[in-house]
Automatic annotation (TrEMBL):
EC number(s) from the headed UniProt entry: 1.1.1.83
Catalytic activity: (R)-malate + NAD(+) = pyruvate + CO2 + NADH
GO MF terms, alphabetically ordered: tartrate dehydrogenase activity
Keyword NAD: yes
SUPFAM superfamilies: Isocitrate/Isopropylmalate dehydrogenase-like (SSF53659)
Stated family: Belongs to the isocitrate and isopropylmalate dehydrogenases family.
Top EC class of this enzyme: oxidoreductase
Protein name: D-malate dehydrogenase (decarboxylating)
Protein source organism: Megasphaera hominis
Keywords: Manganese, Metal-binding, NAD, Oxidoreductase
Ranges of residues in domain Isopropylmalate dehydrogenase-like: 5-348
PROSITE patterns named among the record's database cross-references: IDH_IMDH
Obligatory cofactor(s): Mg(2+); Mn(2+)
Family matches, as InterPro entries: ICDH/IPMDH, IsoCit/isopropylmalate_DH_CS, IsoPropMal-DH-like_dom, TTC_DH
Amino acid sequence: MHTYNIAVIAGDGIGPEVLAEGVKVLKEVAALDGTFQFSFTHFPWSSAYYLKTGKMMPDDGIDQLRPFDAIFLGAVGSPDVPNSVTSRDLLIRIRHDFDQYINLRPVKLLKGAPCPLADVKREDIDMTFVRENSEGEYAGSGAWLYKDQPNEVVIQNGVFSRKGCERVIRYAYELARKEHKTLTNISKGNALNYSMVFWDQIFAEVGKEYPDVKTYSLLVDAASMFMVKNPKRFQIIVTSNLFGDILTDLGAAIAGGMGLAAGANLNPEKKFPSMFEPIHGSAPDIAGQGKANPLATVWSASQMLDFLGYPQWGKKLIAIIEDLLVEKKVLTPDLGGTATTSQVGDEVVRKLEETK
């Protein structure tokens, strides 16, 4: 029996609550399958850890994570610690140091999920974002000059390498070809005359190798409008780190809310562990109340199963999420229900057992 070693970083706020349900579900999947199992190792790295130690993770934190097959992340963020510290010193550092250059985020309106858009059918919202995850404005390059002086200047560099752009764009083309879907490139070449012109150029260059893939290109402002007015025009989307971050939150808003939003940070070559997370944030206002929706975490668990080579189980988890949304009997308050976080997790496990 194969054992997958999973690093668990529950993090802040509702992170520990939702991640406990994700772990519960993964354990049940492994037990039902019988050919593999999970070994979970928990790390206390969080804002509370920072307030005690002055660091979001130990100096050798990356080395501690390196041997694992995958990382399961809850959420990071606390009113007590600046977001620039919680995100950059943990989440972004892991993404960068493990070369998790693909951020894969599904924006799919599931059966039974609420949608704020009028006259939109469920099948009209079914897109996958392939977001560059290691460069761009999030590369951490820049300068802060004449700090606290009247002539203070800050410079935030957008870093776009040929290698970094080519590999994420190629990944998107390959996905579009495999799934027989269209590919939309989103950039801002009319205003960002170096980075986005370069990005668009590479998109066109790589595209010559994929004449069978139908492509479109949109400016990011137009794309955000069309995601609301005509979401069915999008299938596979490739875009930069910053634009992808913003647009996928818009995608979550039109596809059931943040409680159903999952994301995978992938190192496709598996040289380093990939990381899977719900993207709803730490939600400190409801932490510890049992109100947090764990379904985004279950969805991210399905992404982990897909990546590890068990897509049949990934599909079953998505089908179970849809069952819960359609039945509307065991849902958390954000989806109009009265169930607790753990009750929703228990219901997912119960439905899994029915598949035996």
